[in-house]
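Quick one, tokens below:
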């Protein structure tokens, strides 16, 4: 019993001896921590990035780092292109990327070093500083939208469009001439933005001239020379019209427009626009003033006669059985094709004739002018059976009489003289049909379009100019 009491007394005394000095030390540490908390300068030996901030106040440190970041704007990055499509390089400056300081809160963090927490924590932080481990990163934030914009401005010249193989005819009875195409190259901008921004924000050691390989992707050519070799030498659709009664100016316009269409390749799924191919109608583009319809009357305008080219093409397209996407008939009848088989175009109103290549192989349009006869042929891969033939015929549904002759004063003609300005035109409502034959027997009758042509009276000019005038 006495031995147990003696042991308890010894333990109590030992605990008392240990606890009393610890309590005193804790109070001293708390007092020391309180004093350090009031000090707002950064401990000596602390770096943020490459900037020594030890001994500075918060404001001084912020100004010093701001100056350092400003100096980083002079650093550059080199973008390299090295692939089969060709080599090149571009240099970007950090100043172009609108980079900003992403972690200004690091200043408060280093100010609190060795001034917060218990004695052991503060002691360790001071030792880290003494051992050159008191370094913190300057983190940058890159404006990704701005980076994308800069990359596109600098790398656009390195992008290469894929070019399809080409095909042409050197003459009406000549063989096809096929030219090879080539693949293209595109820059992977999204991947480039992610890679550059991530490197600058998380890995960059502020070195100048860091190089990056530009990320690219091959854009394969859609139609190569083999695709062109599928085009048959026999035309899928062909049509001819004559312009033997035309004036020299109108004839020249027909030849000029036909030459602009000649050799056009229309790829599968692509739409051909006659208007965009042959315009603008002006002297600089090779056109002359010639008669054309405007507002139901004949008038002279640049490009007069080009509608005959559009109508000839329309009939060739019908015979190739391609998809017509846009077509308008004239306001008055024309003489070079049957009713409902014409196609009007006009630059002023946007009237156009368009068709789509609804086959799986490219199409080639060839135009020929011989002895004032225009011929347009369309070549492609014709899968229609030889025993199947087609024919286009029109039917008149209604007729409209032109009415009485219209006399109009003309101050350019001498008084007492008259001149016919425009002959009368009957009006019609007509429909165009496609008749389909198998081995010569009619098997199908398809309505193609319905066209209405206005009636127009005869116009006679009456002179009013006197001899004195």
């Amino acid at each position: 019993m006495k031995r147990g009491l003696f042991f308890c007394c010894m333990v109590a005394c030992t605990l008392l001896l240990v606890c009393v000095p610890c309590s005193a030390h804790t109070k001293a540490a708390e007092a020391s921590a309180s004093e350090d908390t009031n000090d707002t300068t950064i401990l000596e030996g602390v770096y943020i990035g490459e900037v020594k901030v030890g001994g500075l106040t918060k404001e001084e440190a912020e100004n010093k780092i701001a100056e350092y970041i400003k100096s980083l704007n002079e650093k550059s990055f080199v973008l390299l292109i090295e692939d089969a499509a060709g080599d090149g390089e571009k240099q970007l400056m950090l100043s172009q990327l609108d980079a900003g300081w992403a972690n200004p809160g690091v200043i408060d963090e280093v100010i609190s070093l060795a001034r917060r927490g218990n004695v052991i924590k503060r002691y360790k932080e001071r030792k880290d500083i003494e051992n050159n481990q008191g370094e913190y990163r300057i983190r940058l934030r890159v404006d990704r939208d701005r980076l994308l914009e800069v990359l596109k401005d600098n790398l656009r010249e390195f992008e290469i469009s894929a070019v399809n193989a080409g095909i042409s005819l050197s003459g009406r009875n000549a063989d096809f001439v096929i030219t090879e195409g080539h693949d293209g190259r595109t820059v992977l901008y999204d991947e480039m933005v992610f890679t550059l921004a991530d490197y600058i924000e998380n890995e960059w050691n502020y070195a100048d001239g860091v190089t990056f390989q530009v990320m690219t992707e091959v854009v394969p050519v859609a139609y190569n020379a083999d695709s062109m070799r599928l085009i048959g030498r026999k035309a899928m659709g062909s049509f001819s019209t004559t312009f033997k009664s035309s004036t020299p100016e109108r004839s020249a316009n027909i030849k000029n427009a036909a030459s602009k269409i000649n050799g056009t390749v229309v790829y599968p799924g692509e739409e051909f626009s006659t208007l965009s191919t042959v315009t603008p109608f002006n002297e600089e583009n090779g056109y002359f003033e010639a008669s054309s319809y405007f507002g139901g009357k004949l008038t002279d305008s640049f490009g007069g006669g080009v509608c005959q080219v559009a109508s000839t093409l329309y009939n060739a397209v019908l015979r190739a059985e391609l998809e017509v996407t846009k077509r308008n008939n004239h306001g008055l009848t024309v003489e070079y094709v049957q009713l409902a088989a014409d196609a009007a175009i006009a630059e002023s109103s946007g009237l156009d004739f368009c068709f789509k290549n609804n086959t799986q192989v490219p199409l080639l349009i060839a135009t020929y002018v011989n002895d004032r006869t225009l011929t347009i042929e369309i070549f492609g891969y014709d899968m229609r059976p030889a025993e199947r033939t087609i024919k286009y015929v029109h039917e008149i549904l209604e007729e409209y009489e032109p009415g009485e002759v219209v006399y109009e004063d003309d101050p350019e003609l001498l008084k007492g003289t008259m001149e016919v300005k425009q002959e009368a035109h009957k009006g019609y409502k007509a429909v165009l049909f496609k008749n389909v034959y198998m081995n010569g027997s009619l098997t199908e009758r398809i309505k193609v379009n319905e066209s209405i042509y206005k009636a127009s009276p005869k116009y006679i000019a009456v002179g009013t100019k006197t001899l004195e005038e």
